[in-house]
């Protein structure tokens, strides 16, 4: 029996070039019928969807980096917004997927998603972990942390590691991976509560509220009297400059995000390149999807650490499709802690 | 018989924090006697000495990077200024060196140098090349070009390579190494004559005068319609920003020098870090002396190319100790072409 239903999706009203506001978004209804989809499509009911800072770059009117990755492709007003998520199959034109199967992959900000043949999704084996973990710590947030720290940052035992936005979706995992690897780890965050979380729950050696710092360079010097070996950068701007001032010779900067620059409000970092030369620093941008080859290694480590309770996944879950705009806006105002997720429906 | 003589050396009068002027320097006389030197010292008559932009960083009042390399150690007013050079032994307290031996290594800006035990110098086998080549193309300028291009920039056949200060001591060798490796190479320089030199004598695919460019980003787009894979950066500042705007995915920036920033007159580069992430760029500072392990490989290649006439070393040689200040000042005003060398004495 064919499923015909109404789907509600969240879309942008216009391109967004500054900080996002809830009013930049609206909910749009569409009719969903399997017969209208390409052969082999799978329709899923969305359970959990991810909201991530990088999505803002795709909503800008001028997305100069469009061609470099599907993660950078522009999203126009009114268009479906894809996102990582977990769903349950309700109708399948693909013999490999049956009604009731759980899937994880690129869904859309909506109540339902149509997964066309060739798009990125797979059957999900939850391995005993909450479903929401599979779009965070056990998915790209975790892989980003792991690959950025070890493959890009080349962190080794005893290294001094600094993480900015340390209580964010990726940062809180970076710090835990680094501690479990024998590094000294300090994180920066934007509130007293987040700083406490880093120190007390997540095992960071130290943490500070960057909003209390009058001079980031001096602040970092205080927390890293012996210098920084690896900086996991989530913010760019002044923090990146201050970190480079405090890097040790042959230090590595893994540039994961520059959230201070996404909204066009923060000024760009102008790092001291004389330091970059004399200290032989490496500054390297990366995207987790270039590291799929180490996904098995990552997932094995993450499951081991999380299964034994040595690592925790902090999730900040909003409820319902209509909460997506506010959840997204929160990412840029420091409102979230850990991985921001929207639960669309109960399993 | 002990040698006692008067040595004339060039020193700074004060620290230099902006662009250097000839009047920042003076010639100072000192008495030189073997008996006053540490046991095992070797006194050489300087034949050729090098003048290099990095030396300015050592003359600044605030040299924050002092501890990272001997190439960054501060040099105070009135102190001997060390430099790479070729000399001839005139008195030796070291049985391994005889009067008349040619040596290459860290000499000083002077008529004579005292090479103390443990300092960096070795006997020179000129291998049929002019002595001056051994402080340029066949020494650190060459190694800098080779290591920066292949080890840091990871240039491979077919890559599109951009070199700034392309007619400089290192740049003109980078372009030739890249061409001989099968790369497409464009250089920037500061005069019409230099641009002609790059295109007509050095075999660059193309070259442009950056002073004629109203918009460096657009200019680079014109010369690299298919993007830049490797940028060998000698200048920093706006050129670095424009290059990053034009880099291809997985591009590499080898940061060799940021001459536009040494004098404090040029503004620092504020590269687009969103591009650095989405294009997964690597920006890496380096010093040639970290690549001594590939010196044999480099010197073999360089001798092969230069011996067969496929590569040429451009040298800009001033005559006499008193020409050192003007030779040095020229480096920052674009006055030199190729490797700047001062011939102190005839062999």
TrEMBL record, chains A, B:
InterPro entries per the UniProt record, alphabetical: ADH-like_C, ADH_N_2, ER, GroES-like_sf, MDR_fam, NAD(P)-bd_dom_sf
Q: Which residues form the Enoyl reductase (ER) domain?
A: 18-342
Q: Which of UniProt's keywords are assigned here? A: Oxidoreductase
Give this protein's Gene Ontology molecular function annotations.
oxidoreductase activity, acting on the CH-CH group of donors, NAD or NADP as acceptor
| Protein name (record) | Enoyl reductase (ER) domain-containing protein
Pfam families, per database record: ADH_N_2, ADH_zinc_N
């Amino acid at each position: 029996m064919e499923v015909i239903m109404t789907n509600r999706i969240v879309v942008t009203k216009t391109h967004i070039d500054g900080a996002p506001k809830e009013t930049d978004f609206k909910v749009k209804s569409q009719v969903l019928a399997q017969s209208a989809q390409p052969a082999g499509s799978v329709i899923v009911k969305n359970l959990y969807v991810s909201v991530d800072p990088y999505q803002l770059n795709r909503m800008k009117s001028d997305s100069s980096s469009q061609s470099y990755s599907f993660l950078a492709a522009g999203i126009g007003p009114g268009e479906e917004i894809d996102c990582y998520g977990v769903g349950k199959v309700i109708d399948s034109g693909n013999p490999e997927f049956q009604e009731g199967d759980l899937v994880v992959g690129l869904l859309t900000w909506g109540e339902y998603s149509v997964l066309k043949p060739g798009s990125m999704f797979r059957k999900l084996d939850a391995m005993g972990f909450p479903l929401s973990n599979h779009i965070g710590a056990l998915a790209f947030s975790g892989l980003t942390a792991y690959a950025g720290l070890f493959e890009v940052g080349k962190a080794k035992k005893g290294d001094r590691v600094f993480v900015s936005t340390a209580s964010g979706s990726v940062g809180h995992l970076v710090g835990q991976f680094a501690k479990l690897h024998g590094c000294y780890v300090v994180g920066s965050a934007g509130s007293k509560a987040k700083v406490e979380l880093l120190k007390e729950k997540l095992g960071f050696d130290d943490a500070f509220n960057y909003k209390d710092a009058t001079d980031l360079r001096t602040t970092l010097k205080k927390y890293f009297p012996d210098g920084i070996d690896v900086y996991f950068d989530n913010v760019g701007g002044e923090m990146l400059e201050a970190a480079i001032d405090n890097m040790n010779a042959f230090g590595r900067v893994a540039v994961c995000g520059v959230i201070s620059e996404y909204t066009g409000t923060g000024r760009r970092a102008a790092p001291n390149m004389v330091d970059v030369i004399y200290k032989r620093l490496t500054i390297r941008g990366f995207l987790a999807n270039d590291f799929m080859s180490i996904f098995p290694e990552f997932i094995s480590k993450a499951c081991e650490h999380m299964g034994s309770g040595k690592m925790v996944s902090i999730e900040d879950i909003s409820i319902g499709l209509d909460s997506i705009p506010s959840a997204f806006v929160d990412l840029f105002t420091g409102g979230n802690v850990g991985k921001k997720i929207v639960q669309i429906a109960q399993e």
